[in-house]
Amino acid sequence: MRLNVLRVADRGWGTYRTITAALRAAGKGAVIHVQPGVYRETLVLDSDVTVLAEKGPDTVRLAGSTGPAVSVRAGSPVLREIVVEGAGHRGTAVLIGGGEPVLDRCTVTGGRVDVIGDATVELRSCTVEDSSDTGVYVTGTARALLHDCVIRSIAGHGLTFNDAARADVQRTTVERVVGCGIAMTGQSLGLFDNCTVRHTGDAAVLLHAAARPVLRDCRLHDTKAQGLRISEKTGAATAPQGAASDEDATGAGRDETRIRLEKCEIFRTGLEGVLAGDAADLRLRDCHIHETGGAGVIAAGTGRVELDRTRVVDVPGTGVAALDSAEVRGQGVTIARTGANGVHAADTCTVRLADCEISATAYTAVHFGGNARAELRSCTVTDSAQHAVSVEDSADLTAEDLRVEGARMTGVDINGADAVLRRCVISQAETGIRLDTGHRPLLQDCEVLRSAGTAIEIAAATGAVLLGGRIETAGAAGVFLAEGSAPWIEDLAVADVKGSGLVIWSGARPRVRSVTITGAAKNGVYFGDRAEGLLEDCSVADTGYPAVYVGAKAGPVLRRCLVRDTDEDLSQADDADARFEQCRTDNVKVATLATVVEDHEESEAEQEPAAEDQLPELLAELEQLVGLDDVKREVASMAKVMQMVRRRQEAGLQPPPLSRHLIFAGNPGTGKTTVARLYGRLLAALGLLASGHLVEAERSALVGEYVGHTAPKTTSVFRRALGGVLFIDEAYALVPAGQSNDFGQEAVSTLVKLMEDHRDDVVVIAAGYPEDMERLIDSNPGLASRFTRTLRFDDYSPRDLVRIVEHQASRHEYRLSEEAAAALLAHFGSIERTERFGNGRTARQTFQRMTEQHAMRVAALADPSDEDLTVLLPADVPPAVGQ
Asked: Cα-Cα-Cα-Cα dihedral of 816, 822, 828, 831, to 10°?
């Protein structure tokens, strides 16, 4: 086959004086050789021809007079080693409107390359430079392949991909651009492999949240903004005339494919390394982010960021931050040498980190605040200038197998938030763990080693649950319980502390079981003045001061405790009121505990336990409640049964099977909460509950808003009820009718397990409308076996409602006249009992309205008497209206 070769020269021996003339004469497959020179013309390519510079690169310059210098409409034309100049250094230099052209070792200067429609262009070893707009703009469904190219000195973005455009960019450098190096909007997608973006005036890479590129082995550096920024609307370069706009794509749905960066390096940025906002869905794998101008990675809005074996180091701000409702997941991440936090989370975001390392942070290494939900699993935190882990506000942390070493302040600091820590090891912190919260955090099998100060500090009025674990080598106390704290501590080992092993300060009321304390430089257990609490089955040995110290007017109970291998077993103030039951000593030089136990047992034989002395008073308080005759009989009967249960236990006999959990079935305002509170106090008086306090909860307190949120919320509420009563009002709302996959089912399952794990530590009362409570019990087999008794709270009769008003009047120093009582009885008898009828609440509201009417009536009297000021008359009874 004879090759069709045409020659072009602006002067001399060439067959054609213009390239356009040669194109008109060329057939399919023709090759046009162009001699050196400047050709001022516009090429329109629509066939399979090749136009090449005869003498190589930079010898042929094609300068368009107006509009694009090169327009491709169809075919597969090839331009090789041609310099294409835009008209007046502005606008489009090359317009690809169709076909599949190839630009090979070409230079495009003074204008951009536009690829529109469904065209496909391939740029091989090309340079695009000196454009006052974007460098390469690809839109519609067009595709651009750039291999070994350079895009530089651009006044806008280097590469822009819009709408559904596709990119295949390899070994390409984008540099010295005023805008972003790469901007992708709409639903564009593509692969960027082994590329470099540097010296940009804006972000190196700017993405619309719906764009789906993959960057592999890319380097993004020396930018004046972020290395990578993802937002809902990017504000990318304006589309050329006739090209589709990105506005139609901004609301498009997000494909399941994530934005991915693999083995990429981001460094020397003016702002954050990565900023993922709005609806971003990003995965960074084996990436290296360092020397940024701000934070390493920020996830904001509803963005999702997954970090896999990624390093974030040497940043002046926070390493990884999550804000708003964003979600961050990390696996094998390294965060080191940050100028602020290592990890920071706030608002309602979610952070889940596993096998991560955070070290050398200038602020707190890991900080969670707001309503953040966080998980740390098998993570290591070292060398923090402040706290290693800080959780505050309403945040919630679950940490498992966490290792903390070298915090200059606190290893784990919980301030107002909630937390579950399992198998965590905290070493060489100033304070190991500090808990200051209205929640009840759980520490299970945790170790606090070599703390400079106190190992575990539980602040004033804080409850906590400490199960298992050990404390070793503390510079101060092993465990310090501040004023009014009420933790549960079981199976904890405390050894070699320079202070006291367990310090129980004034007003603290811990329940301590099976704790061993050895090698304390001061007391093993120190009870401050007026301290309370119960210690059972504990062991104290080898102490520098007396093993147990009891301060003035302190009244703790020590039961079955052992003091051994120490100089002195007990020291207490003259007016201390401690009780020692079945305690003993072994190898103690100065032993007074045995005498105290003997004296106590003799005095105890002469009187009933102090707790049961409260029973008559509590039962009398129950009997004084208005109405509820059946309920009062049931509760009084249960109190007697449980009194017998306790006495059998004290006698060493097996207790009968008994479920203390109850269903309270009744309409609103029938006294369910009041009886629940009394029931808890009764069980506490019998010694069957530690405190008997009441914790009220509804569906919103137990059920989460997303997958994985419900169980922690339910557990948190349950922990606050340990030692008392968990009262769940409108409990049937946990299982809405007809919604089998509602999160409430998870709450019920979690409750069932917790009730089994803490069968002796809490009582659960589920309350609600009678007809709905049966549906709740039927929703889970575990509920039916645990709630075997239902107490029915009948509506109050009109006469009961009058008695409630009389009780309210007495409390507030009023009195009903006989006529007013009669009028009030008629009033309650005439009320229509719709769903708005509130029983006791209606009675209290009626009393309030009566006092208001009374005040208006008495205000009109010139000189009211004492009787006028206190007696309620029929005129004060409000008229009956529909309730």
From this structure: -130
Are 154 and 129 in contact by the 8 Å Cβ rule? The answer is yes
pLDDT (mean) for 231-243: 45
CB-CB neighbours of 262 under 10 Å:
16
The residues that bridge with 94 in the sheet, in sequence order, are 70, 113
Judged by DSSP in three states, 781 sits in helix
User: Looking at residue 416, what DSSP letter applies?
Assistant: B
| Cβ contact 832:882 at 8 Å | yes
Distance CA 264, CA 731 (A): 52
What CA–CA distance (Å, rounded) separates 319 from 384? 13
φ/ψ of residue 19, rounded to 5: -70, -35
> Shortest CA distance to 211 belongs to which of 175, 258, 248, 168?
258
Q: Which among 359, 345, 409, 402 has a CA at the least distance from the CA of 377?
A: 402
- Residue corresponding to tokens 């298992």: 468
Alpha-carbon distance of 856 to 875, in angstroms, equals 11
DSSP structural state of residue 724: S
In one-letter notation, the amino acid at residue 604 is E
The CA angle 276-281-287, to the nearest 5 degrees, is 70
Q: Please compute, for residue 854, the number of CA atoms within 13 A of its CA located in the half-sphere on the CB side.
A: 22
Strand-pair partners of 380: 357, 403
Q: The pTM is what?
A: 0.77
What letter represents residue 591's amino acid? Answer: A
Residue 264 corresponds to which tokens in the numbers above?
Answer: 């990429």
- Give the bridge partners for 572, in sequence order: 550
CA dist 282 to 193, 211, 231, 278, Å? 17, 11, 11, 12
Distance set, CA 132 to CA 19, 64, 128, 160 (Å): 27, 16, 11, 14
The rounded distance, in Å, linking the Cα atoms of 13 and 150 is 35
CB-count burial class (<10 Å; 0-12, 13-18, 19+) for 188: buried
Distances (CA, A) of 437 to 413, 453, 560, 671, 720: 10, 21, 31, 30, 11
What are phi and psi for residue 808, nearest 5 degrees?
-60, -40
Tens-digit pLDDT profile for residues 557-569: 999 999 999 999 9
Give the CA distances from residue 290 to residues 220, 297, 525, in Å, rounded to whole numbers and listed in that order: 11, 10, 50
Distances (CA, A) of 737 to 392, 710, 711, 752: 37, 19, 21, 20
Residue 680 CB contacts under 8 Å (≥ 6 apart), including other chains = 689, 692, 693, 694, 724, 725, 763
Go through the chain and tell me how many residues it has.
Answer: 883
- Count Cα neighbours of 668 within 13 Å in the Cβ-side half-sphere: 11
| Residue 368 three-state SS | strand
Q: What is the pLDDT of residues 94-145, one digit of tens each?
A: 999 999 999 999 999 999 999 999 999 999 999 999 998 899 999 999 999 9
Q: How many CB atoms lie within 10 A of CB 247?
A: 11
* Three-state secondary-structure class, residue 143: strand
Measured on CA atoms in the order 704, 710, 714, 715, is the torsion positive or negative? negative
**DSSP annotation string for 17-69:** SSHHHHHHH--TT-EEEE-SEEEE--EEE-SS-EEEETT-TTSEEEE-SSS-S
Taking only the tens place, the pLDDT of each residue in 261-304 is 999 999 999 999 999 988 899 999 999 999 999 999 999 999 99
Q: Exposure pattern of 646-683 as b/e (b: 16+ CB <10 Å)?
A: beeeeeeeeeeeeebbbbbbbbbbbbbbebbbbbbbbb
Burial of 574 (0-12, 13-18, 19+ CB in 10 A): exposed
